[in-house]
């Protein structure tokens, strides 16, 4: 089981290298982040960043948390692109946001500057952050009866990854906070995938009516 968990963990990391690229490309190609909840993007960015720092500072095997770094990198790109389009294609504002984020991560990663207790407290907040982020996206989809530029591929991969992480967290860390985190993320991802499948059909119907 331990070997299987480690192999699965590295598979999740490998998959996470491109999990948000479909979402990033969808925003880039459309020139719009319509349908994406800014609250969800912020919560996902905070949760993945803190998750990576927590695993790093606790000395967990890389296979147990390594995707956090890759997810954070892709999420910051989506956030920066969303800012760019929402603020009249302001490249300076988008780059400033990225620079501030990078500086904050460097600060939190330094044991001499930030005690582990602070990171652990942040990790304790990731479950409500993840749940709030998923709920914000689900509510936005529901209230607008559309998922806009939300990517089915990305959220399907996130669902598979979070389900896999439930198993690897039990096997490799035995940390109840991580297990609850991934259970909550799995539930939220499942709801959003179901909404994309449901409202995606509605979006196609509306487009056909307009073209007709």
TrEMBL record:
This is Mannose-P-dolichol utilization defect 1 protein homolog. The lineage of its organism: Eukaryota, Metazoa, Spiralia, Lophotrochozoa, Platyhelminthes. Keywords: Membrane, Repeat, Transmembrane, Transmembrane helix, Transport. It comes from Macrostomum lignano. The chain crosses the membrane at residues 62-84, 91-110, 116-136, 148-167, 179-200. Its main location: membrane. It is a multi-pass membrane protein. InterPro entries: MannP-dilichol_defect-1, PQ-loop_rpt. It is found in: Membrane. The keyword Cell inner membrane does not apply. GO terms for cellular component: membrane. One of its GO terms (biological process) is oligosaccharide biosynthetic process. Belongs to the MPDU1 (TC 2.A.43.3) family. The keyword Transmembrane helix applies. It holds the Pfam family PQ-loop.
């Amino acid at each position: 089981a331990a070997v299987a968990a480690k192999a699965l963990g590295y598979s999740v990391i490998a998959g996470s290298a491109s999990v948000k690229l479909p979402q990033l490309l969808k925003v880039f190609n459309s020139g719009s982040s319509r349908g994406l909840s800014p609250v969800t993007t912020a919560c996902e960015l905070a949760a993945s960043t803190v998750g990576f720092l927590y695993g790093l500072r606790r000395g967990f095997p890389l296979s147990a948390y390594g995707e956090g770094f890759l997810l954070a990198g892709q999420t910051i790109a989506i956030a920066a692109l969303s800012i760019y389009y929402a603020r009249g294609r302001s490249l300076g504002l988008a780059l400033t946001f990225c620079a501030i984020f990078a500086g904050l991560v460097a600060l939190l990663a330094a044991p001499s500057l930030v005690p582990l207790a602070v990171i652990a407290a942040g990790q304790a907040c990731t479950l409500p952050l993840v749940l709030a982020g998923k709920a914000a996206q689900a509510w936005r989809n529901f209230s607008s009866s559309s998922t806009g530029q939300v990517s089915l591929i990305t959220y399907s991969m996130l669902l598979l990854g979070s389900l896999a992480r439930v198993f690897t967290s039990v096997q490799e860390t035995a940390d109840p906070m991580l297990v609850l985190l991934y259970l909550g993320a799995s539930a939220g991802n499942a709801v959003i995938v179901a909404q994309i499948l449901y409202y995606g059909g509605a979006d196609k119907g509306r487009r056909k009516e307009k073209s007709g």
